[in-house]
Amino acid sequence: SQPQKRHGITKSISLAGPSETDIERNTELEKFLIESGLYESKEESEKREKVLGHITEIVKSWVKQLTRQKGYTDQMVEEANAVIFTFGSYRLGVHGPGSDMDTLCVGPSYVNREEDFFIILHDILAEMEEVTELQPVPDAHVPVMKFKFQGISIDLLYASISLLVVPDDLDISHGSVLHNIDEQTVRSLNGCRVADQILKLVPNVENFRMTLRCLKFWAKRRCIYSNVTGFLGGVNWALLVARVCQLYPNAIPSMLVSRFFRVYTQWRWPNPVMLCSIEEDELGFPVWDPRKNHRDRFHLMPIITPAYPCMNSSYNVCKSTLRVMMEQFQYGNKICEAYKNYLQVDIISADAADLLVWKGWVESRLRQLTLKIERDTNEMLQCHPYPSEYVDTSKQFAHCAFFMGLQRKVGVSGQEGQQFDIRGTVDEFRQEISMYMYWKPGMDIFVSHVRRRQLPGFVFPDGYRRPRPSRHPNHHNGKTCEVAPRSRSGSAERQIKRKLDETVDKILDKPEKRASISP
Ligand code: 3AT
Ligand code: MN
Ligand code: MN
User: Fold this and answer.
1) Which parts of this chain are annotated as the region Disordered (predicted)?
2) What distance in angstroms lies between residue 419's CA and the mean position of ligand 3's atoms?
3) Per-residue pLDDT tens for 84-117?
4) How confident is the model at residue 415 (pLDDT cuts 50, 70, 90)?
5) How many angstroms does the Cα of residue 153 sit away from the middle of ligand 3?
6) Residues 344-372: pLDDT tens digits?
7) Cα(140) to centroid of ligand 3, in Å?
8) Cystine design at 67: which of 80, 161, 207, 422 (Cβ 3.0–4.6 Å)?
9) CA 264, 197, 269 angle in degrees (round to 5)?
10) Which atom of ligand 1 is nearest to the CA of 225?
């Protein structure tokens, strides 16, 4: 038997690497993320590094000054030191242009948080002209000093560890830093320890990063990115994505995004998501364990942090937010499984009462259309009819539509660029349809090819594109979808087509406008 390298607490689901299509999609995905403004410029990232340098200088001289004031020896003053670590999205390498920088200052045992950090360092910062919006939050679950340094948002935490001298190369992933410190300090150190672990536990850091960027962007747009409101925040999304990376160790981001939705639509919560097994109490700090702690049993969506002491990072999730997120995962999954190309069959009738029979007739012949298409393309083009339909009888004429996913037969090499002309097939189908015994003027069908992005919103109710508030009833002026009659023409025909276009415009929601719903 072949030994399989394990990533995380179980075997991986698949070791498959990318196909050529996956690689192409990955390039497109990356382009999309760049165009969406998710990456900062070189200048901006250099600025962040400079700011980090400044803050490091500030805390080092603060500790030195305190060492002197507290009466330590000259040698102690000489060796006095503090170090800055980063965590959060900046540390993970997934921060955007506007992200904050989460930083932790680790200082010696004799420099405390209550006075030295929140009063003395606070006053030093308050004096500096680079520092604005200084806001100490000493009573928080994780005490933090918030400010902007040269316009960049900083969250600065402080941890005093049980060493007299903090070495520059201090390794905080080692459990020994947790000796003789209080729980608040443990929590302050933990952001960094968690980030360290995540980066160690994923099989490929670059693939993890791009996938996480993509899913954070998606979650923000779907309005489910927020810890305080009971959804998920940066660290939670990072852990979910990291677990998917472990389950598909050779997959690239274009694959990982769809695997993400596949995994989490099937996940049976409250089974916990974990990147590694939970370490037993070595130092006696409370660890997430529903078998021991009664209150941990009520967690609905446990996403466990990978550094000792392991905690559930998503205790804020409640029944309703879990439901909303599950719905969003479902829609995400549906979209990822969606075809790129569709055939849209619009069925209209001038009289609403006639639509039902007319639709019934067309529907009964649709199977013929799929058969004809597969026959005429030597089964190289495959059809997937969707049984659901859309009906709209609220207009001057009645309208409904069916959709069929189209895909090239998979596993046939050398055919990638092949085009299919199915106009003849569609015409034949229309001929057949027009044989309807009870045909009346005003009954018609239109068959058109649409791309996935042109699909009307009703194909993915509530989830794919959100209906916008109806403040501006005329906001659908732009053309979004071509519903072209194939063979017949005539002025009555054109008129009805125009009306149909108007209807289609009304039910469509332009994808570019989706940007307007992002918070
Ligand atoms: P942004 O890009 O800033 O939105 P982020 O991952 O940096 O994403 P935050 O700045 O909100 O997120 O949080 C910074 C870190 O604080 C991430 C994590 O180490 C810690 N943290 C925040 N919320 C939690 C939580 N619920 N459980 C454990 N750690 C948390
Ligand atoms: Mn952050
Ligand atoms: Mn932050």
Assistant:
1) 1-22, 460-519
2) 50
3) 999 999 999 999 999 999 999 999 999 999 999 9
4) low
5) 8
6) 999 999 988 899 999 999 999 999 999 99
7) 13
8) 80
9) 25
10) 4
Ligand 1 pocket test: pick from 102, 240, 304, 314 the residue with the most ligand atoms within 8 Å of its Cβ.
102
Res. 283 pLDDT band, cuts 50 70 90? confident
Residue 464 inside a domain? The answer is yes
Look up the CATH number of the domain holding residue 68. 3.30.460.10
- Point out the ligand 1 atom lying closest to the alpha carbon of residue 155: 10
- Do 138 and 74 have their domain in common? yes
Last residue of a domain, one of 172, 196, 220: 196
Verify whether ligand 1 is closer than 6 Å to residue 95 (CB atom): yes
Q: How many CB atoms lie within 10 A of CB 151?
A: 10
Q: Report the distance separating Cα 419 and Cα 421, nearest Å.
A: 7
Same domain, yes or no: 495 and 363:
yes
List, for residues 199-247, the tens digit of each pLDDT value.
Answer: 999 999 999 999 999 999 999 999 999 999 999 999 999 999 999 999 9
Residues 358, 502: one domain?
yes
Interface pTM (ipTM) of the complex? Answer: 0.95
Handedness of CA 485, 487, 489, 492 (dihedral sign): negative
Final residue belonging to a domain, choices 135, 169, 196: 196
- Protein residue with its CA nearest to atom 22 in ligand 1: 235
**Residue 330 shares a structural domain with residue 343:** no
Per residue in 175-205, is it b (16+ CB within 10 Å) or e — as a string? eebbeebeebbbbbbbbbbbbbbbbebbbbe
What residues act catalytically? 89, 100, 102, 155, 216, 225
Q: Looking only at Cα atoms, what is the longest distance across the chain?
A: 105
CA of 102 to the centre of ligand 2 (A): 5
pLDDT in the model for residue 291 = 92
CATH number at residue 283: 1.10.1410.10
**CA of 84 relative to ligand 2 center, distance in Å:** 15
Q: What is the mean pLDDT of residues 394-406?
A: 84
Q: Which atom of ligand 1 is nearest to the CA of 96?
A: 2
Verify whether ligand 1 is closer than 6 Å to residue 313 (CB atom): yes
Using the predicted structure, report yes or no on whether residue 492 has a pLDDT greater than 60: no
- Give whole-number Cα distances, 142 to 157, 233, 309, in Å: 8, 16, 15
At residue 109's C-alpha, the angle toward residues 103 and 115, to 5°, is: 70
Contacts of 509 (CB under 8 A, 6+ apart): 456, 457, 465, 466, 467, 468
pTM above 0.90, yes or no: no
The verdict on 277 and 146 lying in the same domain is no
Same domain? For 30 and 52 the reply is no
Domain extent for 293:
20-36+202-335
Closest ligand 1 atom, residue 89 Cα: 7
What is the C-alpha separation between 274 and 245, in angstroms, rounded?
12
Share of the chain above pLDDT 90, in %: 70
Residue 13 lies in a domain: no
With respect to residue 6, please indicate whether it lies within any of the assigned structural domains.
no
One-letter amino acid at 363 equals E
- Is 104 in the same domain as 246? no
pLDDT at site 417: 64
Q: Is 235 in the pocket of ligand 1 (CB under 6 A)?
A: yes
Give tens-digit pLDDT for 458-481.
Answer: 665 544 443 343 333 333 333 222
Answer whether 191 contacts ligand 1 (Cβ < 6 A): yes
Mean pLDDT of 128-133: 98
What ligand is nearest to the CA atom of residue 156? 3
Output DSSP code: residue 496.
Answer: H
